[in-house]
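Hey, resending since the last one bounced:
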Amino acid sequence: MDDDLIALRASCDRSLSGHGERAADLLATVPADTALDRYGEGGVVADLEAEVAGLLGLPAAVYLPSGVMAQQAVLRVHADRRGRRTVLYHPESHLARHEEQAPERLHGLVGRPVGDRHRLLLRADLDGVAERPAALLVELPQRDLGGRLPPWDDVVQQVRWTRERGAAAHLDGARLWEASAGYDCSPAEIAALFDTVYVSFYKGLGALAGCCLAGPADVVAEVREWRRRMGGTMFGMWPGAASALTCLRRRLPLMPSYLQRAREVADAVRDLPGVTVVPDPPQTPMLHLLLRTTPDAAATAARALAAEQGVWTGLPAPTGDPGAVRLEVSMGDATMALADDEVRSAVAALGGWGGAP
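The structure tokens again:
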């Protein structure tokens, strides 16, 4: 994001997506009486780890500064314990798309995408895998497919297939909090299926950057060692941990209302010309909007909305179709604060239809 765009975003007082925090709002999520840690031990870091382990119903959790680090570390542990290097995941997995081959280049893992990139990974896709993997990574919900969730029974079968082969079942739960609303169950009910679980705090919860990795105590202890090896054990980790604890307690109970808002947003825009809601209806507190317009036109419209109306939508992303763009909308406090007609007007403007009725 260039400097002009950063300044434009900062000038907006409304946002279509997320919680719309400014720096002062984020700093306010760190209580003045926060108990400090020392190199990730004690204080609010220990409090957060205990609370997350309890919420997920797992024996232990460790706080890390990023999900990239957390998932590489735990997959390395699973691979080393089994003497295998192959990790199975969906072709749109974060590991495949956004980590510049780090699992392969830093840890000697072998990533094997499974299934069709344009649809959810299903149990039947695993029938094409003959080798014995170290782990299967399942992302719930699938962010790059619009926040979709596979059928619950299919996830159970995927995990069963994995365990039958002596492999670990790992959950990429960056948006587990949103998945719990979509499945209408607790985070612990989802986590119970898996050997290890990663959860993020800055995405759906809107905290400062950071995450937790949860699972058996011995696995978590090894991940804690890898955190230090990978440079993630900082002298003081309390700001992110305190922010995470505040936002977890504040916003996890709101996930069902965020899901309802996603469905209201879909209702408000689905009849606009050239708009496709993905998935329709939304399955979690997020959705994608496909707009029949060009990337340049959409970017120009987004900048105009920000400059003239103070509404930040983000820049829609290009797709494989030069005449279509994709806008990701994650529900949050800012989305809840917008009226339906404001949402509709903003999406219409992005698509080039002005003030659509």
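The longest strand covers residues 168-173.

Sorry for the duplicate.
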